[in-house]
């Protein structure tokens, strides 16, 4: 089986892990970077390969590649190419915006913190004036490793947040990089908890997970007060993670959840597509890369059999 492994960048050792496991499974896994693609007439080509010649496509990451992801979506639908993840065939990469995710989860009845979405920093200041603090503020476009998530304990923290965002702009200028425009803020109710669960699901089924300690009480919520631990996940945590992944159409998901220390209920905090799995494998001893590829093989194999039977 020949699978296209679509990605933008190589983080950690994910690509190597997938290539190693593909070798064990006897899969030809071809890394395809979006910017190496070309549209020629009505064909999308990667070098001399027509993208429809693959048995299936695994979108490891999409990020800001909005144009290519849409073109590939149209091409996959035209030629009945099977893909992972399913959300790319409906919502597309717009699903990665936290505002969109919050709407879909709340609308489906999955437990999610009370939320509000505002466009500008000025609107954010006005909105938080009517909230009970502390509250969580997230950049709707996201941020890696918690760098886009902030804990606002009092309104004075907004000045600190503004300073942080201006600092990031200045850092980009000095590095001659594209200066980010910080707009689109998701305000979220703070759920008191004793740490969060990270659950990995593949094909909407729970593989396993671990628990991270409670976050440091500081503006940027990117560090926990101690080492994460492998745990036996409670049934309601697994079921909630599976339900959220299915609602969003994210076949390979890393979902963050917390249990409220006030009412005991489990809340979805975030569903991440194409999650990193180095820590997951270390804590759970589960071979995530192999499980993902096995799922792709099973799904793409069914599609190929269906095509041959027609």
Automatic annotation (TrEMBL):
It holds the Pfam family RimK. SUPFAM superfamilies: Glutathione synthetase ATP-binding domain-like (SSF56059). Residues 102-297 form the ATP-grasp domain. GO terms for cellular component: cytoplasm. It comes from the Bacteria. Keywords: ATP-binding, Nucleotide-binding. One of its GO terms (molecular function) is ATP binding. InterPro entries: ATP-grasp, ATP-grasp_RimK-type, ATP_grasp_subdomain_1. This is Ribosomal protein S6 modification protein (RimK-3). It comes from Candidatus Collierbacteria bacterium GW2011_GWA2_46_26. The lineage of its organism: Bacteria, Candidatus Collieribacteriota.
């Amino acid at each position: 089986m020949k699978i296209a492994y679509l990605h933008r960048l190589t983080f950690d050792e994910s690509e190597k892990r997938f290539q190693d496991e593909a070798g064990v499974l006897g899969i030809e896994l071809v890394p395809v970077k979006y910017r190496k693609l070309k549209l020629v007439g009505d064909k999308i080509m990667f070098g001399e390969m027509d993208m429809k010649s693959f048995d299936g496509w695994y979108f490891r990451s999409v990020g800001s590649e909005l144009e290519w992801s849409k073109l590939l979506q149209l091409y996959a639908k035209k030629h009945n190419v099977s893909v992972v993840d399913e959300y790319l065939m409906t919502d597309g990469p717009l699903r990665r915006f936290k505002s969109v995710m919050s709407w879909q989860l709340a609308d489906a009845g999955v437990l999610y913190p009370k939320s509000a979405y505002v466009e500008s920093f000025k609107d954010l200041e006005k909105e938080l004036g009517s909230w009970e603090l502390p509250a969580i503020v997230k950049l709707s476009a996201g941020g890696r490793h918690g760098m886009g998530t902030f804990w606002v304990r009092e309104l004075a923290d907004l000045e600190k947040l503004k300073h942080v965002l201006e600092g990031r702009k200045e850092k980009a200028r000095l590095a001659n990089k594209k200066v980010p425009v910080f707009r689109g803020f998701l305000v979220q109710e703070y759920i008191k908890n004793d740490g969060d669960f990270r659950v990995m699901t593949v094909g909407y089924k729970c593989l396993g997970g671990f628990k991270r300690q409670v976050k440091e009480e500081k503006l940027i919520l990117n560090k926990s007060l101690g080492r994460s631990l492998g745990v036996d996940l409670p049934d309601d945590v697994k079921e909630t993670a599976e339900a959220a992944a299915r609602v969003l159409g994210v076949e390979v998901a890393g979902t963050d959840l917390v249990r409220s220390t006030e009412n005991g209920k489990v809340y979805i905090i975030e569903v991440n597509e194409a999650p990193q799995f180095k820590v997951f494998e270390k804590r759970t001893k589960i071979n995530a890369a192999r499980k993902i590829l096995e799922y792709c093989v099973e799904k793409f194999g069914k599609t190929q059999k269906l095509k041959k039977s027609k």
